[in-house]
User: Which sequence fits this backbone?
């Protein structure tokens, strides 16, 4: 097996959209970059997501969302591949009057932050999507939201990064981080030690574990989310819609990407108990929506923590090629809700594929981007809390700017790592 010979300016850990976009923007500006990925490119969240490019209701993300949006519009051309980008808009439906009132507050904040967001009455929603029915009161509409095909995007960033000179090693986990004198000295990978000026941790749901190797405490949790896609039906809307028990996007070929609302599955591991205090407000807010499950994964995780376990030496060996189980009850519920939302689909829906992915989240559902105070040469670009497909291109750009210019072109103040220690969490997370 070959070893990594380079001593790059930057080592990126993780080949999801954030890591690959970071490698691309760095290499484009002639920085030398090595990216290591424990499995294949886009093995985890970045190929499993719904493909929504939303500018959500968290004003702390608005600046990065706007930067990302400006990149998305030209991304197929920039990367030289059709990414199935469509700027069709995004709609959230309110369950009741209280929820609808929240839309007004969110729209005010998002418009002030520069994102065109509109609150629509039920007839106004129906005018935009004539097929829509079901039990909901109104809508929150962002006309500039869009969609793209997840697996295509990350692969295109990786390919373009390589064309610009980045070295990408797959099936190569980062297994340890050596720190001395307040600085990262090297990272042990499966293909040898790498010494880099800067290490970027873009390891998605595994970032907290990598942080711990460097002596850092990143609060992070992962939730198993189930998705399904259908066989194509005639195209009726390009607006991504979330409400009435379902989230749905219609792709270019007419197929639908469908996810049922309701409870999410939290497969308990030892990590679930770390940072419990920080997650408590979020747990209370979403009481009943997240179902903890003690299963074989918990038992295996305890085994991996034992001193004799091989996981001590190869801490990510068990995490390669994992295919999380979709929750088929959620798929069935999602399809039921889909037909209530769009009755014209009755008799037309055939599930083509169902899958699941672990979504990484922080206590305030806001990413962590930037340096870790007190540790020179280390940066996080992680914790995207279900929004990282949309924000990925902008995140890659700002990480490259932080490294090369010391200054990002988007306001990422509320994404700083130190906010956890300061107790200054984003108040907007739902
Ligand atoms: C079901 C689902 C639906 C979603 N829907 C949307 C959506 O519609 N819109 C949206 O904006 N976001 C969505 N998200 C969230 C979005 O997919 C993520 O926020 C985004 O992909 C995060 O990208 P990432 O690069 O940070 O992480 P990931 O894509 O998870 O990539 C991290 C990579 O790091 C690698 N890695 C980990 N540890 C190591 C190591 N030690 N060494 C080397 N490599 C390592 C992993 O193998 C992985 O490939 C969804 C997520 C899921 C699961």
Assistant:
């Amino acid at each position: 097996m070959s070893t990594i010979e380079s001593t790059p300016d930057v080592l990126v850990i993780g080949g999801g959209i954030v890591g690959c976009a970071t490698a691309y923007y760095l290499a484009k500006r002639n920085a030398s970059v090595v990216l290591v990925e424990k499995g294949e490119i886009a093995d985890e969240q970045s190929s499993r997501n719904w493909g929504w490019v939303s500018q959500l209701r968290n004003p702390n993300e608005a600046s990065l969302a706007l930067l990302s949006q400006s990149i998305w519009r030209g991304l197929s051309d920039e990367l030289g591949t059709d990414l199935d980008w469509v700027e069709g808009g995004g709609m959230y439906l309110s369950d009741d009057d209280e929820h609808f009132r929240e839309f007004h507050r969110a729209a005010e904040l998002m418009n002030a932050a520069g994102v065109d967001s509109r609150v629509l009455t039920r007839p106004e929603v129906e005018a935009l999507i004539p097929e829509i029915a079901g039990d909901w009161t109104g809508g929150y509409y962002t006309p500039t939201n869009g969609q793209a095909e997840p697996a295509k995007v990350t692969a295109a960033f990786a390919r373009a990064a390589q064309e610009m000179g980045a070295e990408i090693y797959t099936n190569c986990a980062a297994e340890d981080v050596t720190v001395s004198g307040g600085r990262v000295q090297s990272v042990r990978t499966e293909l040898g030690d790498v010494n880099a000026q800067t290490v970027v941790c873009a390891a998605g749901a595994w970032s907290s574990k990598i942080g711990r190797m460097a002596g850092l405490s990143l609060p992070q949790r992962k939730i198993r989310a189930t998705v399904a896609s259908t066989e194509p039906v005639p195209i009726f809307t390009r607006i991504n819609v979330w409400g009435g028990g379902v989230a749905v996007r219609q792709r270019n070929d007419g197929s639908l990407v469908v996810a049922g609302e309701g409870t999410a599955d939290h497969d308990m591991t030892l990590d679930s108990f770390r940072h419990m205090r920080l997650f408590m407000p979020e747990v209370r807010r979403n009481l009943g929506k997240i179902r903890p499950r003690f299963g074989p994964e918990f038992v295996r995780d305890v085994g991996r923590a034992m001193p004799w376990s091989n996981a001590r030496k190869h801490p990510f060996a068990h995490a390669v090629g994992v295919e999380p189980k979709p929750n088929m009850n959620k798929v069935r519920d999602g399809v039921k809700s889909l037909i209530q939302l769009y009755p014209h689909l009755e008799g037309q829906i055939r599930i083509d594929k169902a899958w699941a992915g672990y979504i990484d989240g922080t206590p305030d559902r806001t990413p962590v981007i930037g340096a870790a105070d007190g540790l020179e040469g280390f940066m996080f670009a992680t914790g995207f809390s279900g929004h990282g497909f949309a924000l990925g291109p902008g995140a890659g750009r700002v990480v490259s700017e932080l490294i090369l210019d010391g200054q990002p072109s988007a306001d990422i103040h509320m994404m700083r790592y130190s906010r956890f220690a300061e107790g200054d969490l984003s108040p907007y997370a739902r």
Notes: The domain at 10-422 is CATH 3.50.50.60 (FAD/NAD(P)-binding domain).
